[in-house]
């Protein structure tokens, strides 16, 4: 059991008999004297991938689940499953496409830094690296003399993900994307 004041990003907790991963924690101090600190915790259900918010007092407790973290790499697609290979023992772990639909726009073959959360021998979720580098496969032509900090335009990446990029970015450019926000960071 862990108290809300001990929660850390990435912990796997059992909430309503279902595994949830802690995505964000924000402590809120109330203004009156002697009032308890409240913790606003955002969780992701590892089975349905739905987001779930809790507002907890520092003494509220939830069971911590045993969850193995293993570095994996995307290998291939088999029907409606993505197959990941574990980097330490090269075992294969299939994951349904709908279970990782939010992450698909960032996953490419050979992408390193993916961590699988394994509960009971099954991949319950993926943690992506903080940023990925992807090429642009479709965008409008760049405007000569445009500034990199001015207006933006849509661009489609090799994975099918659409992001907003500065106007001076051209077709074929390779860019860095923040996986948490889905926003353009810089040229690679």
TrEMBL record:
The keyword Protein biosynthesis applies. Residues 69-124 form the Translation elongation factor P/YeiP central domain. Keywords: Elongation factor, Protein biosynthesis. One of its GO terms (cellular component) is cytosol. Belongs to the elongation factor P family. This is Elongation factor P-like protein YeiP. Residues 132-187 form the Elongation factor P C-terminal domain. GO terms for biological process: peptide biosynthetic process. SUPFAM superfamilies: Nucleic acid-binding proteins (SSF50249), Translation proteins SH3-like domain (SSF50104). SMART domains: EFP, Elong-fact-P_C. GO terms for molecular function: translation elongation factor activity. The keyword Protein biosynthesis applies. Pfam families: EFP, EFP_N, Elong-fact-P_C. PROSITE patterns: EFP (PS01275). Gene3D superfamilies: 2.30.30.30, Nucleic acid-binding proteins (2.40.50.140).
């Amino acid at each position: 059991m862990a108290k809300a004041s001990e929660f850390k990003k990435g912990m796997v907790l059992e909430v309503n008999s279902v595994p949830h991963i802690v995505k964000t924690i924000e402590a809120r101090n109330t203004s009156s004297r002697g009032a308890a600190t409240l913790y606003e915790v955002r969780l992701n259900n590892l089975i349905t991938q739905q987001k779930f918010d809790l507002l907890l007092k520092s003494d509220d407790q939830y069971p911590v689940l045993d969850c193995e973290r293993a570095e994996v790499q995307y290998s291939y697609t088999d029907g409606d499953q993505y197959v990941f290979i574990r980097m330490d023992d090269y075992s294969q772990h299939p994951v349904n496409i709908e279970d990782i639909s939010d992450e698909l726009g960032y996953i490419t073959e050979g992408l390193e830094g993916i961590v699988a959360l394994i509960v009971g021998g099954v991949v319950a979720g993926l943690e992506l690296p903080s940023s990925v580098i992807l090429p642009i496969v479709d965008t409008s032509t760049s405007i000569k003399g445009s500034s990199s900090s001015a207006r933006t335009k849509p661009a489609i990446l090799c994975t099918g993900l659409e992001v907003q990029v500065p106007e001076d970015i051209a077709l074929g450019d390779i860019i860095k994307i923040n996986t948490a926000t889905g926003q353009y960071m810089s040229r690679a």
